[in-house]
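QA checklist item 7 of 12: single-chain prediction sanity check.
[x] sequence parsed
[x] length recorded as 251
[x] structure emitted
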Amino acid sequence: MNSIFDSQDFNQNLFFPRPDYGSTPPGKEDSFVEVDDRINIHIRRHPAPSATVSVVYFHGNGEIVSDYNDLEAAYSSISCELIVCDYRGYGQSNGIPTLRKALADSHKIYKFLKDSGKLLDTAVVMGRSLGSASAIELCSEYREIDGCVIESGYADPIPLVERRGLKIDSTTPEEDALFNNSQKISKVTCPLLIMHGADDWLIYPKEAEMNFANAGSKNKNLEILTGVGHNDIMLSRDYFPCLKKFIDSIK
């Protein structure tokens, strides 16, 4: 049976890629990870000499690597260096994005960073919104990952489909195993931080609560940040203090 998650209707309505024709800013390090034949994913590392933790960041939909160029100082202030990862078709990456491919590509990105020595001794994987799927995918599979951060992430894949203007009544066990964040997060055992805007009307805070309840981590924290929604959550004055507290707890 064909899965709706592999359909053109779903993926064309899920992903909103946009190009990036810019050059590498001073002090940044660009890499291209070959994830398939002639398909390369752009990642950008923001080295920070004082950093002790690498944050591998899978951004949200409609965003690209260069949107995060000005956040180096904020992450450096909490002892982190930031590594931002695109998806197929986003920014300077080529190919056509699908959710299934994004999950498969996350493994190749992580293995590239690890094998090429681009990760510090402590590594955290972080996913925002759609990127939560990639973060949970990796943290459910690689026990050596030191921490997982989910920002504005989805839980149940049925509302994810319905937000695309499509309709399904149920998901199969095979679909749940791959696409159901709230089920897969039960396999995440590393320290976990979930942050969500209290005024998020795109992905409701109850999805963050569902992920938190189902997470397999013994050390897990849920922060519902007041006064912010889905796309302005980083403007909360509690955003980086919450992240710093979590980073300090695992260093």
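[x] summary fact logged: The first strand starts at residue 29 and ends at 36.
[ ] second reviewer sign-off
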